[in-house]
Fold each of these.
Amino acid sequence: MSEQPPENPAQPPQIPPHNAPQPPPQPPQNPYQPYGAPGYGPTGVPQWAPDHPDAATVLLLGILGMAVCQVIAPFAWIKGARVRREIDASGGKLAGRSQAQIGYVLGIVGSVLLALYVLGFIAYLGIVVVAVSSGA
């Protein structure tokens, strides 16, 4: 083996000739998220995960279940729970959790209102039956 002489610290570093090929520029590094991590594409541009296909449906069912017809609300509750579980299990590959969460909560509130309406209707029928049978 041949030994190389130690580099002279006083000697300036060698500058490559002007026509030498330059290495390709590297994309800027994000100090908070390394290049190539989820959320960044091959160009270093932020990429967002697509929404779950049913996230908007759950939100729509929840809104309609509250505003128009409470019979729809339990469907928003059940479907919202499933969509939230699927989004959580995707590991960040699916977005839309906030839409699903809002639809889920509206589904719960609408279902509670539906239950109260049904109980109120049953109580009303009971009062009417008692009133009619007593001859009032």
Amino acid sequence: MSWRGIFTALLLVAVLATGWMRWLQRDREPARNAAQRRPDYVLSDFELIALDKKGQESFTLRAPKLERDPDAETMTIATPLFVIPPAQGSQNQPWEVRSQTGWVSPEGKELRLRGQVTAQSTNKDGKPVSVATEELNVFPDEQRATSSAPITLRQPGFTLSGRGLDADLKANNIALKSDIKGRYERTPR
């Protein structure tokens, strides 16, 4: 056998060995990338009270799990319950907002709630008010909420549905944007 034949055989063995090693390592690379994106902290079964710039309660959060992404400085939350207090001096009850998932922006200025979102409080007359949707964006410092998804708003004797929402939580004022339909129902006295 000539030196060219030996050299070709060695190159072929090297290519096959490199390909084989690369094939064996294919499952390990995604695991390494996932480990690099691990949360920098995880909270389990917790209650957190967030304060605004004036030191007043902005909202309270209860959830079974919260994870913080160290790169984006955002948080993801499993089945959160947000309690947003009424404006000072208001007779209204706090808003209780629940969803399947939650996301909090880096400075905590925006909460994105997704999946079976419900918000409950009382109106100016002390009657219960509930809002149901699949997505809701809450801005706690501004005490407002928005959505572009279908919305159902219920009060005793009245149901209002539509698409999109702008809510002023300070004034307990909720406005639906489009496709609005209302239904009155008799309420027992």
Amino acid sequence: MGRKIIDLSLDIYHSAPTFPLDPKCAVIVHHTVDSMGYNISQLVMSTHQGTHLDAPFHFLDEGKTVEQLDLDKCIGEALLVDLTHKRPKEPITVDDFMPVADRIGEGTRLIYRTDWHKQYPQKHYFSDFPYMTVELARWLAERKIGLIGMDVPTPNPTDFDPVHKILLGAEIVIVEGLARLGDIGAERFFFMAAPLRIAGRDGSPVRALAMLESIGDTGGPL
């Protein structure tokens, strides 16, 4: 009976928190029904606000920009790995993915769940999350996956430069700031995180979605 849609995105609102040095988010009333006959707002924010993706140009001047991304990497079947046992500031390592290593290869859309989104919008959301090691980034790059998604604000808060350069250098799309991955209830699901077509730039907010077969659906596999 159709498909079930799960919204995996954080809200965008006036003064929504960001990393300390990032542009601040502003959602400003520009006109209202009373002033102009319709409501319209001004939106000012980072290309990496909330739930968003990184294009290679984010860390690599020669890397692809948002409008050059292969959207096939951003839309399609994904593999969800449960890492909710990870504690704050605990490393996420290659060993954590060994149980599903045989399903991780070229083009895989890989997403890991820590449930860290529940800490948003508290200040420590941006600093104390379980983090990807440099070694894991290299392991994923060697396997030529297409996308890595996570419910934390960035892969690594301290080694962010080498981790991003390894992943983006391998043209892996990075989707950060996902939410509610626990609502999916399946290891494989259809994932969508299409960016705005921002020409020549480094990233974009996304409306990330999971699409699942509803009970009674006989339409076959996604």
Amino acid sequence: MEHPGRIVVVSADIGAGHDRAADELAARLRGRGFEVDRLNLLHLLPGPVHRAVRETYRGVLQRLPWSYHLLFRLTSRSRTSVRAIRVLLRPFRARIRRRIPPDTRAVVSTYPFANQLLGPLRRRGRLRVPVLTYVTDLVVHPTWLAPGVDVYCTVRHAELRRPDGVDVTLVEPLVSGAFGGDDKVDRRRARQRFGLPQDGVLALIVAGSWGAGEVAATAAEVLSTGVRPVVFCGRNRALYRRLSGAGRHVLGWVDDMPALMRAVDVVVENAGGLTCQEALAAGVPVVTYRPLPGHGRANATILARSGLTRWAGTPEQLGPVLAAVVGADPPAAPRDGPPPEDPAGLVAAAARRAAPAGPAEPERRPLLDPVGDAVAVVAALLQSTGGLR
């Protein structure tokens, strides 16, 4: 049977949160019969520049967190800064347009800077198919907003200061069904699989695929409460080597996060993004502690206010908060308003209504030189809202 069309899903490998959401969306769309192309926005850059951008962002988060927080606040309050980012990214509009095949019927982004490229193309008529975005954070930072984007998909408890004319749809989190499915591995078998003790309370400490933030301090302070920390270091090998031993259970990259979450009693996280949504789907209580600057603190505020998580603000509060959530009933999902939509269903409906994108038009503007492109993108990406989960 002929497929109903092609959909391009645009993400970026800045952390893992943006990519994980894109992977889940792509899997759901393929299940509905669509051809799906995955596009890493940073692959538009030359390889060395791509790596420099990613490592610069990682370095700012790890070594200069105060500067990242300052940039996040400045771009939150100033529309001028977002327009400046859009101008800096302008040379890449033609490149991303050429990566959208003629038979494409919709484009979806899970990364905010992609909107600053796709929105203007859509508004100027150079991209004739719908542009939708799935916002991976709970705070809809202004860098997500771009003229020309047709629909913004946000989870129910996200906060958005909505400009006039912005179409926002409440959707389910893009979380794999494996986290809340009926085929759950029991706790005993899950602990055995990961070499964890069968007895005692275990707290899974998660700091994204980069192991960003004050992970060592968090592990020590969780241990001091009498709870055994299980530290997920992601792909941060230096952190893995540094934390191994001393009463902690330290893990590198884990492919089966649903099973790992079923092995523990509580998740302690610092970004409030996709990992938090996964834990809630799995029915595991979540505590936010030592949140990352910028988007981490903003997400923590919203999650705590909604009652979905608890925020331990000091080491003295950590023990009582952990004691309060372990063994307690998971928070109930909000019941007010209509039920959220499946984002894949929303995208599929838009794609079925659309005509194909057609071939890209020839570029009318000269591109910047490679050095100018690299400087522009590095400067802009330092102001990104980030994707660590």
